[in-house]
Amino acid sequence: MSEPVALAQLAAMVPDHEVRILDMRLEEDVELNRVLLEFQPDLVGTTSMTTDCYQAKAVLEAAKGTLGPGCFTIVGGHHPTLSPADFEADCVDAIALGEGEETFEELVAHLAAGKPFDALHAIDGLRFRDATNAWVTTEKRKQNRDLDSFPPPARHLVRRRPGDYFFMTAGPMASISTSRGCSFDCNFCAIWEFYERKTRFLSAEAICDRLEQIEERVVFFLDDNFLTNRTRLGQLCDEIERRGIKKYYATQGRTDFIADNPELMKRLRDAGLIMVLSGYESNEEHGLEYLLKRTTVEKNRRAAEIMQELGIISTGIFMVRQDFSEEDFDRLYAHINELGVAIPLVSILTPLPGTQLYRERYEELLTTDARFFDLLHSVLPTKLPRERFYEKFAAQRDSVWASVRKGALPAVRKRPAFFLHTFGGALRWLKKRSAYFSIVRDPGSHLRDELGTIPVGITVENAPLRARPGPAAPVPLSASPSLVQLRVARAEGPAQHVLSVSEAVTAADPVVVIPSASSPRSKRQVHDAPFHDDPREFLARLRAFVRSHPAVNHPLLTRLVHVPFTREDHKILGLQHHAVVGLHTRCLEQLLPRACGSEARVWILEALLHEHEGAGREVHVARHREYLLAAGASDAEALDTPLHAHVTAFVRAQLELCTNEPFLVGLGAVGPGHEWSVPPMFSFVVRGLSRVGFTSDELDYFHRCVRRPERQEAWLEHALVCCADGHEAQAQIYEGTAAALDAWARLWTGVQRKMVRWRQPANLHVRSQSAHGRYDEGKELTLRQFSRELVPRRMLPTA
After folding, report:
1. Which of 736, 697, 721 minimizes the C-alpha distance to 591?
2. CA 635/CA 774 separation, integer angstroms
3. How are strands ordered across the β-sheet holding 273-281?
4. Residue in 432, 332, 348 with CA at minimum distance from that of residue 390
5. Per residue in 708-736, is it b (16+ CB within 10 Å) or e — as a string?
6. What are the tens digits of pLDDT across the range 533-585?
7. Higher pLDDT, 283 or 532
8. pLDDT value for 613
9. Beta strand pairing call for 126-129 and 94-96
10. What distance in Å separates the CA atoms of residue 531 and residue 51, rounded to the nearest whole number?
């Protein structure tokens, strides 16, 4: 996994502003919310590849929800440039098209000058909403600046911990980019289209200047095709030798270059080159021709031989096509073993957005859910039944060990110093490999991913054709009619090879957050000192605290809006939430006898009248069951589904606050902690459920949670004003509010883990990890078991 060099490059363009880079692939989800609250940035930006596009929008949704409309949000990168329509959302203020350095520099200067968000017409390379709220595109940003003229990436802003950035056993690993673009035009790749068929290079001197500033011994050159300019590579070898730089390098390059330049490859090896990732793609000439690779099987074979002779680790990518028969799979695996590629990676032919292949085969796509474009799922119909196709695909891990031995042993024998240097990373890699293999070796894992999106019985013989958009419209990558939650857990689960999936579901792309140095907007101090002599001012600050709390803008909630979950996923959400239904009523009943003032007592009675309207509090359970039924859950499942430990802990915590804590603490929990937080939280839920197709009647429970009676709201405000007389009383109200919100945040985290976990193999052991180490989430109980635990204490929420 590489460090976020692109964001460090952007940060280097604005040295006069305070910048933070947050790599959410390595953090707990709510760390984003914490940093937003503590740092109070004026600008939040994120980058996005195809599989991350929903998650990128969820990140910006969280930024807007936490900081309000005064925070400017922008997304850039590969996918936004090639499919900008996918990011035209309310939470996005602008989309950077193409290279972003100069665009970003000019944008920050514009905002620092206090100029409006909707007047960015003078900045090239942007798509934004103008004063009429219409999306407009500025002039195209030229991509011709000399790479040596850019400042080095601000790598000091990227937090590094042991094992964060690595390749296989090699780590810690640094990354730099020494060129941009590719001169080839493979039909499955959009790099050459992104860079307009141009390739620009960092000079050998500039590369070595940066290498000398890097402490890590292992460096990954991020170039899309490092092996392309013979003159530059020769100069780089000369400069590394002249300066005496002793490091190991890994990179990406074409096999035909390796085959045609064995002597230059030897020089690169002597300079420190240890690994090359290459696209071998196919074992057949016609397969390479179809992909427009402009190379041959023989060149692939010769490249593998040269790598073995030189002791360079060969990482090879191969593609299985949807027209494969069982024999085709077997022939590909036999060919890989014949080549002797040290690290063979087999992927599925995927028409990525922005590529020729996507435009050619758009009508055949079975889904446009971006997360399936991860090279591990077939978004095109297969010749074999999908079960058998994935069985043969999953067999790769046990079918190519001969290739691993043939390719890796020469490298171990000829480069022992490298393997001794990286020996410490072997244990870490083996742990990640074990978790990863438990997924990729399970063909059912792919089918579970597709449940609710791609019918298991679909093949090339019965697949429908997708209607093409009009001739003037771009080919979209938009939400499918029915969509899916992918399987991969956070960093505690699978390793790098499936991180793109993980980023799309349970982690974010790295985020850069910037407050303008000259911004007139002051930092909000609500979270440090909410108390005030005027109770109404205290309540105003408390409202701001609630609205920006990580629970109210939890990553799961923002993902519900942008990530296309299926009904099956929402069923998991409903089954976990069912234990909470009716809890608020029970808490109010526990609090009422201890009310210390008539105003508070009146509000509680008013709230209880609302809760008991119709058929009493059981009506909430009945309405929630209607939702569960629509999601496909039975009453038995509602009682016998194991609840995440955070869910049961939430129930205990809420009851404890209202039963054993001082009355004002309980009032803070059920008042601001519930009445002010539930409507915005559940509005996210309603938006997410509505996009899946749930009807208004099926969502009546959630609609009622969002719509709170104005009369009840007024009584709560009046009660809080009367009770919040003095800092001591305010402190208790604040304590209860904060405790309730913290419990909500943990509950959403638990629900999210359940929504991810249900698609994973049953034998996958996922260990939860926080930023401060591992922790035990506790024993899971079913609602039936949990009810028995609470009944003796007369604390059972209606279930």
Report:
1. 736
2. 35
3. 173-176, 218-221, 248-252, 273-281, 313-320, 343-348
4. 348
5. beeebeebbbebbeebbeeeebbbbbbbb
6. 898 999 999 999 999 999 999 999 999 999 989 888 999 999 999 999 989 88
7. 283
8. 59
9. antiparallel
10. 44
- For 214-365, strand residue ranges (E) read 218-221, 248-252, 273-281, 313-320, 343-348
The encoded tokens of residue 652 equal 């205990």
Q: Quote the tokens at residue 270.
A: 């002597």
d(CA 43, CA 514): 5
CB atoms under 10 Å from CB of 93, counted, come to 25
Structure pTM?
Answer: 0.87
Q: H/E/C letters for each residue in 603-670?
A: HHHHHHHHHCCCCCCHHHHHHHHHHHHHHCCCHHHHHHCEECHHHHHHHHHHHHHHHCCCHHHHHHHH
Residue 736 in 3-state DSSP?
helix
- Are the C-beta atoms of 225 and 252 separated by less than 8 Å? yes
3-class SS of residue 519: coil
Q: How far apart are CA 791 and CA 799, in angstroms?
A: 11
| Whether the Cβ atoms of residue 551 and residue 677 lie closer than 8 Å to each other | yes
Contact 58, 503 (CB under 8 A): no
* CB proximity list for 429: less than 8 A, separation 6 or greater: 166, 168, 169, 495
3-state secondary structure of 383: coil
pLDDT digits (tens, 9 = 90+) for 582-618: 898 888 888 888 887 777 788 888 777 766 654 445 6
Contact 380, 361 (CB under 8 A): yes
Phi-psi region of 221 (alpha: psi -120 to 50; beta: other; left: phi over 0): beta
Q: Distance between terminal CA atoms of the chain?
A: 45
What tokens were used for 739?
A: 């405790």
Res. 162 pLDDT band, cuts 50 70 90? low
Using CA atoms, how far apart are residues 420 and 417, in angstroms rounded to an integer? 5
Q: Which of 699, 667, 693, 506 is nearest to 600 (CA)?
A: 667
Q: Is 779 buried (19+), middle (13-18) or exposed (0-12) by CB count in 10 A?
A: exposed
- Asked if the bond preceding 530 is cis, omega within 30° of 0, the reply is no
For 243, other C-beta atoms within 10 Å of its C-beta total 13
* CA 420 to each of CA 5, 308, 341, 423, 706: distance values in angstroms, whole numbers, following the listed order: 27, 19, 21, 5, 59
Q: What interhelical angle do 5-12 and 101-112 show, nearest 10? A: 50
Q: 781 has which bridge partners? A: 643
Alpha carbons 167 and 360: distance in angstroms, whole number: 34
Quick: pLDDT tens for 425-468: 766 776 666 666 677 778 888 898 898 889 999 999 999 998 88
Angle at 770 between CA 767 and CA 775, to 5 degrees: 55
Q: Which residues of 745-774 are buried (b: 16+ CB within 10 A; e: fewer)?
A: bbbbbbbbbbbbbbbbeeebebebbeeeee
H-state helical runs in 660-726: 663-670, 678-692, 700-706, 710-723
**Position of tokens 């390595």?**
26
Helical pair 583-591 and 598-611, crossing angle rounded to 10 deg: 150
In the block, tokens 């909430």 appear at: 620
In angstroms, the CA 225 to CA 205 distance is 19
Which pLDDT tens digit goes with each residue over 348-385?
999 999 899 999 999 999 999 999 999 999 999 999 99
- The crossing angle, in degrees rounded to 10, of helices 645-659 and 727-757 is 160
| DSSP E strands, 489-566 | 511-514
Selection from 149, 27, 175, 9 nearest residue 76 by Cα:
9
Asked whether the beta carbons of 64 and 75 are under 8 A apart, the reply is no
